[in-house]
Amino acid sequence: MIPLKLQLENFMSYGKGVPPLPLSDMRLACLSGDNGNGKSAILDAITWVLFGETRAPREDDVIRLGAPSCSVMLDFQLGETKYRVTKRRDRKGTSPIWSLAAWQDDDTLRNISDGRETKGKLEGLLRLNYEMFLATAYLAQGRADIFARAKPTERKQIVADILDLSRYDELEKRARETQREARERRSAAESQLTLIDEELQDKDRIDAELESAEALLADAAAQLTQLQLARDSAHLAFEECQNNANLARDWDEKLRELEQDHAIALRDSEALRKRIAAAEAILTRRPEIEKQEREAAALEQRLNVLQSQVDEATALYREREQLTEQIQRARTELDRELYRVTREVQDLHEEAKELERYEAERSTTEAEIASYGDPEAKRRDAEAERAKADEAFTELKAQRNTAKAEQERLEKRLSALTGSDSSQCEFCGQPLTPKARQAAIVEAETALEANGEYQAQLGAQGRDAKRLADEWRAFSEQALTDSRTVAQLVNRNAHAQQEALRIRTRLEQLPNRERQREKLSQQLESGEFARDAQERVMALAAHLEKLERSQEELRALRQQASTYRELPHERARLTQAEGILLEEPVRLSELETRAQSLATKIEKARPRVEEMRQRAANLPLLRQSLTEAEGALRYQNDATNQAHTRIGRLKAERDRLQARLTERTKIESDRVAASRDELLYAELTAAFGKKGVQALIIENALPEIQEETNRLLGRMTSGAMRVTFETHREARTKSASPIETLDIIIEDDLGTRAYEMYSGGEAFRVNLALRVALSKMLARRAGAPLQTLILDEGFGTQDPRGREAIADALEAIAEEFELILVITHIEELKDRFPTRIEITKGPDGSRFSLN
């Protein structure tokens, strides 16, 4: 990976408008500047945009103080392809925006990934993660000795990651999983074999039971044939007897029908003879009936004449009633009109009194309206004053919130200053002496006190503004209430005026209504109404007196006519008797002949019925014999079916056991194969594990790292120091096997010492040599496309000769990397680098310049 261009905005100490940093034409460059200017922030930007990691303890710490967000863009080359990675983070707590794109041949960008997947995509491209990057290519502040101080197992893991031995971990995992599956298959096969062997123990018993069941079935089949023949014989005898019984029942039914028909014929003949005798008796009354019919006809003629006279009287009565009702209606209508007019006159007198009340009410409301003045204008003025007071209160509240925010900021700053004695400011990252820290504490305390007084002043002003606003609001509400009261008074005054006008209009009708009432009273007293109806009633009275006598005669004749009420029925019975004597004697002769014929048939049928009854007498015994034969046959048939079922079940069990025997052969073969696989993959699990192939590969790679480390260390120390890697050490007990490890043994002119016993300068030379060796091996062995080396500390611990030696070593390996970046603030080393990036810091944040 070769960095080409870096762009920062509001990242750590860098602000907005920072120009991009070109890195494409550099091979060996240093980042120089005073402490706290932002040298390490550039390298933090590279690790943040590539791996999402920095030295900062919290994510939001990478955002410049006071800025809402930050962003970093890095262009880099990997092989023949150029990439652009961009990352942005907001303080709002939302997920960062992180994207990766590749340059096309037409100088356009093709997006590769967005969001969380970008980190995995970058680690896949670079073939290393943040920890591996720190352990090989980036000597960050406080982490240069990460490989040397790591535990042996951690060192081995770093080398394993460089050599991309994770594929062996995957192979070990797959081998272990396959071994587990083989073990499970073997265990399952053994369980199945145990179960099958238990089942096969019943095979001989099943064969013996099957032979016995087949013999019993043969005996049952012979008995079944004999019982079927006996049942068939009993069934034939029963059917013959059943047929005779059916014939007897048919003849018996026919005899009953003949007897019933004979009884009916005898009953009908007797009834017909009685009917003929009754008809002959009725014919003897013919002269008497004809005489009564003549008397009834004369009486009916007189009744018709009288009825017409009564009908005329009824019509006249109805006319008189209608005329009387007409006269009464005229009187009622005249009474009603008199009442209405009288009531209207009374109402007009009452309304005259109401007119005086409405006139008084108008005078009162007009005086009240005048007393309120213009309440709407008062309300508008009050609202304007209230708005001014509210605006003043809002402004004071905003100023107080700003003061509170400033108070919180000052309290945090004071807490940070008093809670730490670091030589660096926790807010701006600038160097901070104890004297400057004390001055900053006094300044913060003074600012806090002034801020408190300012907030108290704003609070008092705010309460005054709030009270004034409340007073104007109350005045406005009172004006609104007065305005509504005036509106109600205006409505009442208009209503009183309208009612007074209406009453004056109605009082103009009072004289006419009083004259109308006098006239109606006179008509009622003199009876001057419905004159034609009254004269017609008097004329009808004399005529109705004559017609009442005809009505009395009509009632007497009707009483006499009631004695002839049964005469039509007598005439009908006489006519019916004549018809009976004409037709029924013939029918009587026919019925007597039919009764005689039926009596003859009955005498012939009785002997035949008795004969059929005797033939069906044995039917119950034959039915019982048939039932017993069918029961025996059914029992034997069930026994035979049970024998068939048992034989079928035994054969199925025999076939199942035979199939299980065949299945056992296959399962045994599977068990043998599973045991073989279990043993094979157990060996592969051990081979692919940390102590297998991986340990051999690491052991083969360590001489290369050791050789390269000693080559660089020899150049930096003139051959005075060298390192040795030990992969095994003796166990504490002699009987135990050697312990696998990865220890770093350092020796110089004084002999072999522990890493911790060397000076800072000596330790740094060892760390640098180890890191460069690891980085070179990373490029050659693991295939990781890393061609950049970054150093962020170490020169301050070297003496002049050590610094010169390190500078010479860096110049010697410069051709092996596309870019080496070194952070330093030592003046005599700046000139040893062909490119120098000078970092300065001002009010707008950090800036850089190329020299």
Automatic annotation (TrEMBL):
> Which family is this protein grouped under?
Belongs to the SMC family. SbcC subfamily.
Q: What does the annotation say about its assembly with partners? A: Heterodimer of SbcC and SbcD.
Q: What is this protein's record name?
A: Nuclease SbcCD subunit C
Q: This protein's superkingdom? A: Bacteria
A GO molecular function term, named singly, is: exonuclease activity
Q: Does the keyword Transmembrane helix apply?
A: no
- Annotated region (Disordered) at 356-382
Q: Which stretches does UniProt call biased (Basic and acidic residues)?
A: 356-365
Which species is listed as the source? Armatimonas rosea
